[in-house]
Structures are given as structure tokens and as C-alpha cells.
UniProtKB/TrEMBL annotation:
InterPro entries: F420H2_bilvrd_red/Heme_oxyg, Pyridox_Oxase_N, Split_barrel_FMN-bd. This is Pyridoxamine 5'-phosphate oxidase family protein. Transmembrane segments: none annotated. The keyword Oxidoreductase applies.
Length: 178
């Protein structure tokens, strides 16, 4: 979402007197979170959920995965997915769900910015190359194909819908649409 979306509080799933979560709070969660849960759909309709690092940049969540991995195969067939982050405490926090299609990132300047963000955020050294990222030798062993020098595709999910679930003194469910 490049323009700030309008927040819509869902009163049926919110405490009395709750207010919609401000978009700035949602963006702060997306920028701070290191781990997201990616949900994709297998060819037979079963869900596939896996944790992975992602970064928020220019109104989209970005992540990388090998095309031979289950999530990569699922996205090749059906790009629609959801990324979820937050915390596991019941009485406080803000959980965020981002829905939208995953699209390959090909622009080298964007890949370079993303590689810098991955390094700053989680210490994972990537080089931006044509087609995605390449693991640097000094970094952790790649979990992808294991082929040295393999290119790992990078995907962007520009939200079609964002949900924010606030917990604390009261509970709130806020929907954001572009």
C-alpha cells in the first residue's frame, strides 16, 4: 500500500470503545519484525505455513525463497499468499496479517536496497544479482538448493488487504484496504 489506507474498525470483533489501529503502528510492526509466517496453498488445496525473514520496503513485504522449495513451488502455481507477524502473548501486542500476490522482484536497485536491509535487520549477507540474491560465502549456509552460487529469487507482496489485531486493555480488529 503506497498511499496510507483508511482504517476500518470491525466492531463485532473489537471491545466496546475500541478504536481502529493507526496505520503508522502497523507499519512499525512490519518494519521491526524479523520473522513472519508465510502461508501458501499446495496444489491439492492444503495450506503450507513456514517461518521466514521478511522486510518492509516501499509499501510491500519482501522475502526470498528457492523455487524448488515447497513455498516456491506453491507460489509458482498460485501467487496468492499471506504473511503474518506479531507476538504470542494473549494480553498485549499487535498481530498483523498481510494478504496479496507474491511477485518476483527483478529491479537491481531494489534488490540492492533489500540486501542492505536483510544485512542490517538480521545479519544475513546477500549480494544482489540478476534474478535475486546470492548468499555470500561468509554468511550462513543457504537453506535453498545447497548449490553454491545459486540465485535465490526475491518476492514482493504488495498488500491487497491488511488486518491488525490489537490486544491490551481492550481488543480491536482493524482492516486496511488500498
Amino acid at each position: 500500500m503506497t498511499n496510507e489506507p483508511v482504517a476500518e474498525l470491525h466492531p463485532d470483533y473489537s471491545s466496546a470503545g475500541a478504536t481502529a489501529t493507526p496505520w503508522a503502528e502497523v507499519v512499525a510492526v512490519l518494519e521491526r519484525a524479523e520473522v513472519f509466517w508465510l502461508s501458501t496453498v499446495r496444489p491439492d488445496g492444503r495450506p503450507h505455513v513456514t517461518p521466514l525473514p521478511a522486510v518492509w520496503l516501499d509499501g510491500a513485504l519482501h522475502f526470498s525463497t528457492g523455487l524448488e522449495e515447497q513455498k516456491g513451488r506453491n507460489l509458482t502455481r498460485n501467487p496468492n499468499c499471506a504473511l503474518t507477524t506479531g507476538n504470542n502473548a494473549y494480553g498485549h501486542g499487535l498481530d498483523v496479517v498481510v494478504e496479496g500476490p507474491a511477485v518476483r522482484v527483478a529491479e537491481h536497485p531494489t534488490l540492492e536496497r533489500l540486501a542492505e536491509l536483510w544485512m542490517a535487520k538480521i545479519g544475513w549477507p546477500y549480494d544482489a544479482v540478476e534474478g535475486g540474491f546470492r548468499h555470500r560465502p561468509e554468511g550462513p549456509a543457504p537453506e535453498t538448493s545447497g548449490v553454491p552460487g545459486a540465485v535465490v529469487p526475491v518476492f514482493a507482496v504488495r498488500p491487497t488487504k491488511v488486518l491488525a489485531f490489537g490486544r491490551g486493555e481492550g481488543f480491536s480488529q482493524t482492516r486496511f484496504r488500498p
